Amino acid sequence: MEIFETGNALSNSFPGVNLSAIVSVLPLFLLSTLRIGSFLLSAPFFGMPGIPIQAKVVVSFILGLAVIGNFGLPSENILNGYNFIIIVFTEIAVGLSAGLILTILFSSVAMAGEKIATSCGLGYAAQIDPLAGGQTPVVSQTLTLFLIALFLSLDGHLIVIRVFFESFSILPIGAMPSPAILIGAGINAAGKMFIAAALIMLPVAGTILMINVAAGVMTRSAPQLNLFSFVFPVTILGAFIILYFSTGTMALAFSDLIYSSIEYLENLLMDIDNG
After folding, report:
1. In terms of pTM, does the model score above 0.85?
2. DSSP H or E run through 153
């Protein structure tokens, strides 16, 4: 009784403000921000540890207002019973799945950088990577930062937010997607990650392989020459030269990776709609 009396007193103190309506709308508004908030936590760039969690919460609330402005509040019927708890977990699962799929596809660049560093002898040149939460080679970190910079320069973050907004029209709040579609999309994204990583590292790794084969043939023909101590810096220099001259080609490859990842996310939403 004291709570209702306090609410009535506050309503009388602020005329025009219906606190009971605000209390009933607040859970629906928070429900509208769950999918966006979980997506911001798991998506590339948005989920970077360098971005404060407070900023992510504020952005999710602002985007939640935009969702309400475009699609309206969900029905109050979803607040009844255990159905509300199921919807909460469903919204979190959809947001996390979409963000993790993009993260998996973008991880192909980091994987390619690790293989390039290992093949040319730079695997030990590693430092703490705040994005991965551990030690990663410098080559991998450089390529990842290059991808993030290209992602922002191409307005990929805005395109991803627009595509993710479309999920609220395809899958309204309260609708249940098929778990098999989300799991299958994650597995297919992992396969695409390995293929993209192989294509990115192939020029550098192939050149280094040819250098090592040539050194092996020369050592076989002239055993008295200790060429391996000479080949090691040559492979490092060759890797840097190839990376330098392939910057433009790599930028095009990264652009294709960004657009194909966004297209993959759009196809996932279409599969959810058809499913």
Report:
1. no
2. helix 138-153
